[in-house]
Write a structure and sequence with these properties.
alpha+beta; six-stranded mixed sheet; four-stranded antiparallel sheet; 13 helices; 22% strand
Length: 449
Amino acid sequence: MKEYIQENMDRFLEELFGLIRIPSVSAKAEHRDDMRRCADRLVSLLKEAGADEAAVYPTAGNPVVFGRKFLGPQYRTVLVYGHYDVQPAEPLEKWNSDPFEPEVHDGAIWGRGANDDKGQLFMHIKAFEYLVRSGRLRHNVKFLFEGEEETGSASLPEWMKAHRDMLKADICLVSDTTMISDKVPSINCGMRGLSYLEVKVTGPDKDLHSGHFGGAVANPIQVLCEMISELFDEDRRITVPGFYDKVVELSAEDRAMLARAPFDLDEFKSFLDIADVRGEKGYTTNERIGIRPCLDVCGIWGGYTGEGAKTVLPSEAHAKISMRLVPDQRSAEIGQLFADYFKSKAPACVKVDVKLCEGGDGFLIPISSDAYKAASRAMQEVYGIEPVPCRGGGSIAVLAEMQKELGIDPLLMGFGLERDTIHSPNESYLLSQFRAGMESIAKFYEYYG
């Protein structure tokens, strides 16, 4: 595979750049046509790589791309999952280059989707292409690429239920996550779930003059801030009643195993330019990210925020709140617990609305499985060191749904790094990781069954 990559790298980059140039931003309705263009291009790439069939399938939202190659019933089937939608590029002024005009410099590919998830998805297509053209493929392979992962995969669960037989497989192979470092590879054996909400606090029925009414009428922004501050106790534990009821405490042995992952707190703080970390008392930074739930305010707004002064007491205040959940916590249940609690904390001077926006459950996979062992062996050969099992702090909501509906475990062979700043300006993907990912994926097929 190494020689194949070297011989075809220029072509690989130009094909990947063609995908990145399509602004497939699922969060914005104005990019609806771009979503279809990107899906069509993926169909072409799958057919060129050797798929027997590939097509675009409509859903209630953005289309799904499905392709497959069938060798025979005697072979195991691998289902490759990825997503072709990307995060909005804003704030554009923070980018050093056009986010949808990819570049290569400083040993990396730069552009929106370079890593998440076009670059990582593309590795699977090229590893498959190599296996087909070299005559080394010994598996049935199916590809499932969606266009709504960045907005919660709203349409995919129903589509999967309707196409359950078509999606039958032995394992779901995913590259949409990060590893500890390019020197210490890791494989995610679980991810957190998500419950994402929007809250609205309303005071007076119109904006008011802050001189005429300030001090006598409740300010919704101040009330919202007070309510948010009550969501945590002095130990940084979340105060929503019932929030921790289904959180399983890991044994000392399990915590020790996860602690094998190398972590330098000073380096972590330096990378983020912070003086100290903060989180739930009694847990390390890595544990707070991987094995514990959390709550974060992702956005807050209200009143006048334009240039200059406007002495206004606002009518409304808003916040977007995410809760990352560990396995056994259920997204819908936690969302409702939060909504009930938050409304109960509202003083009589305001009205509170809570909208459940999106969510999904977390999951765990066994590290004793054949698939995990095959991935571990493949990555050890490529990186020269055995990968460390770890838990991802992020969420891919649809994978738990896939585990439940299709009865197959996801295997997360992610090759991104924290340096890639995937949801921020100047997203990038190291060329060395791009190559190592293709090699590792090809070797996975060699060792899996």
